[in-house]
Request: fold
Amino acid sequence: MSYQTGVGQRTAVVTGAAAPRGIGYATARRYAREGWAVALLDIDQNGIAASNQRLRDESDVPSIGLAVDVTDPDSIKRAVAEIAEAGLPPVGAVANIAGLASPVPFLDVDLALWQKVLDVNLTGTFLMCQAFLPQMIDNRYGRIVNMSSVSAQQGGGVFSKTPYSAAKAGILGLTRSLAREMAEHGITVNAVSPGVVATDIRAGATDEENEARLAAAVPLKRQATVDDIAALFVWLSSEDSSYITGGTHNINGGSYIA
Ligand SMILES: NC(=O)c1ccc[n+]([C@@H]2O[C@H](COP(=O)([O-])OP(=O)(O)OC[C@H]3O[C@@H](n4cnc5c(N)ncnc54)[C@H](O)[C@@H]3O)[C@@H](O)[C@H]2O)c1
Reply:
């Protein structure tokens, strides 16, 4: 596809974009399909280079792949500078998708695990928002889309327990409060809350039979695809969603109806 004007004048920054079957890469690909330039970020250095190459093979929008640890403010600061130096258009959207789940039962959760899960999911989201918002404020366009989970709303998930639920619930609070603060700048802040999505996040903790059982328990009788989730992230970054902010956008096939 060709590099469009309009949204094509903006860059979408997507974290957690290295996993080949993950939501992050699918979202990066969807932004590209809609004409956005894309910055793909992930802690997995080889994986993110491969993702960027894959995106370039599939589309002709400008893109960059950067090894970034979202828990490290210096690493994020370097990414802000590298995106600007690469000559990409101004950042118009940040999709905070990097995450880490934990199936460990509560009494076995030590402080290090608690801290790690909160750091990647919640603190990473905070740091990314703080690093990229100044240019969005200057440009008077910004869309922040944060990844939560049904685990935050229903009291845990199949493989995700307390630290993960706490972190993802924290993301809902951060999203609501930041939405109110950023409204005067015309910037929207929303959270996406999926149910079960077919990715490798449960790798090692599940098998085919279990995955089929998870799908059967969903009223719509399937797990979400990564493209289901990607489409919502990109729509919440568009001009069309300009009056929607502070929301928790459930996308779970009816498994949690609030
Ligand atoms: N798969 C599901 O069922 C599901 C459901 C609800 C929410 N989510 C959320 O969606 C997001 C993506 O999940 P997925 O299933 O694609 O997972 P995934 O494990 O396939 O991808 C997560 C990515 O985050 C990256 N990452 C981890 N720590 C990082 C760090 N410190 N800095 C930068 N990147 C880091 C990983 O390298 C990986 O590429 C996560 O936030 C997850 O919690 C997933």
Summary: The helical segments are 23-33, 45-58, 73-85, 111-139, 150-154, 162-182, 208-216, 226-235. The domain at 6-250 is CATH 3.40.50.720 (Rossmann fold). The chain is about 45% helix and 15% strand.
